[in-house]
Amino acid sequence: MKVSLKYVADEEYQAENESGNILNIDMLAKDDKKAFSPTQLLLAGITSCAAVDLVSMIKKRRKTLVDLTSEVTGKRREEQPRRFTDIHVHYKVVSPDAQLEEVEKLVDLAVEKYCSVAASISSEINLTHSVEIVRP
What is the pLDDT of residue 117? Predict the structure, then answer.
């Protein structure tokens, strides 16, 4: 796996993967923001990585998946390096036939066992997750 990074302007960068896909990254102030920051990309990587496995496991159990959304929040320490101390991922699964207890177990597996992004971060980070089922 390889990603190249290119300087675009002060606090603006462009990453490119081996397939030629481009991702803009910036460290601009909130009001000037055009793209994700590196730390926001990490949060997005965790939730999307686990979501891929979660969707697959729900479908393997022959449950109907109407929609899936998530929100991930992170708390960072004040001193440098401003690493994450806590990350929480909340999934909302829209399904007429999935049961909360079953999906909670699947989320546990997706986040804690199968997600390579989550597995790559420090064990000192308190990574938690939750799920809710919405009936269409």
Answer: 94
